[in-house]
Amino acid sequence: MIHANSSRPRFVLAILLGGMAMFHFSGCQMPDGSPKEEPKGQPKDEPKRDQFAEDRAPNDPKAIPFDGKRAMGYLKDLCAIGPRISGSVGMEKQRELIKKHFEAFGAKVTLQKFDGKQPSQKDAVPMVNLIISWRPEAKKRVMFAGHYDTRPIADQELLERDWTKPFVSANDGTSTTAWMMELAHHIKDLDLKVGLDFVIFDGEEFMFNPKRDRFFLGSIYFADDYKKNPPAHRYIAAVLLDLFAGKDATFPIEVHSYFNAAEVVDSIWKEAEKQGVKSFLYQRGHEVLDDHIALQKIGIPAIDIIDFDYPHWHKLTDLPENCSGEKMAEVAKVLTAWIQRLK
Ligand code: ZN
Fold first, then answer.
1. Which has the closest alpha carbon to 236: 136, 142, 343?
2. Which of 178, 253, 302, 324 is most exposed, with minimal Cβ within 10 Å?
3. What pLDDT does 217 receive?
4. How far is the CA of 308 from the centre of ligand 1 (A)?
């Protein structure tokens, strides 16, 4: 992902937009009244506000014993493969592992294959988005999303000679997959009234020259395909998790998420409050371009839960030891409670 205010992502250093002032949700106005920043492409299929209303929801969504230690074990297993750059042997190995894992829990795993071509590279690379479906028959669905490719270069390292050293990207993408792998143990115990898809994008990090190359190949392909071949189901919300498992991660509200899916943001941050999870900050956060943007452009109310202040972003130190199973469990507590309230 990149910070929206930077044309050169490697210079991005956590620039806060408008500080961390508290703001309130009413309509689609940001607190400083800056509608100019509103991203293009408005959702066409926004859920009605009452879709998330508490009075229609069960009082007590079931709590699940999300095992942070086991989630960290999955994270270590994925990182142990080494770099998993799109089109590489490591990526192929990872895909097999993930597919097998979810199929063992009874999920339907669909491989969405496409060729990813970057202007800076001579050849296209085969890429695969993974769509892992629970309750595939349900027409009303929610998406939890992430990416599973690792960046070819660790270009936030100060010394350019370090950029090409093996980079495993523990929190950047990988933590989301590990989180989903642990969540797979508990899906059968959730009281789900909607269908649930884990959509794991390829080609999020396949970037060699930020001036020439395209970002977000996987989510853009997914969105184009969704538009060209409209499925029988409909996503009422999508929640992207990225850089969310750092030890001290906090989640102020990402700006595009708020502009395009305020009701999803509102309902999740309220749920966090209800669950006593303090890392969800009801404050304005960074403006981040990430895989949720392509989803928003096709009318899916999509948000990004992201800790863009993670100090190891695109550095060789983005390692499992800088991630936290407790943090993963916190986020699971919020999202599993939230999703059980949806009808
Ligand atoms: Zn990244």
1. 142
2. 324
3. 97
4. 10
DSSP state string for 262-278 = HHHHHHHHHHHHHTT-T
* Residue 287, domain CATH: 3.40.630.10
pLDDT of residue 42: 45
CB 331 within 8 A of CB 244: yes
114 within 8 A of 221, measured Cβ to Cβ: yes
- List the Cα angle 172/313/299 in 5-degree steps: 50
Predicted model pTM: 0.86
Does residue 54 lie within any of the structural domains? yes
The whole-number pLDDT of residue 57 equals: 57
DSSP state of 162: G
Residue by residue, DSSP assigns 204-240 as SS--S-TTTSPS-HHHHHHHHHHHHS--SSEEEEEEE
**How far does the centroid of ligand 1 lie from the alpha carbon of residue 340, in Å?**
30
What is the structure's pLDDT at 47?
Answer: 53
DSSP assignment letter at 22? B
Q: How far is the CA of 77 from the centre of ligand 1 (A)?
A: 19
| 149 CA to centre of ligand 1 in angstroms | 9
Beta carbons of 249 and 242 less than 8 angstroms apart: no
User: How remote is the CA of residue 207 from the centroid of ligand 1, in Å?
Assistant: 10
Show the tokens assigned to 185.
């143990």
Residue 70 lies in a domain: yes
The 10s digit of each residue's pLDDT in 230-242 is 999 999 999 999 9
Q: Is residue 16 part of a domain?
A: no
Is 115 inside a domain boundary? yes
Residue 209 and residue 120 in contact, taking contact as beta carbons nearer than 8 Å? yes
Report how many domains make up the chain.
1
For residue 135, the enclosing domain spans 46-340
Strand pairing class (125-134; 108-116): antiparallel
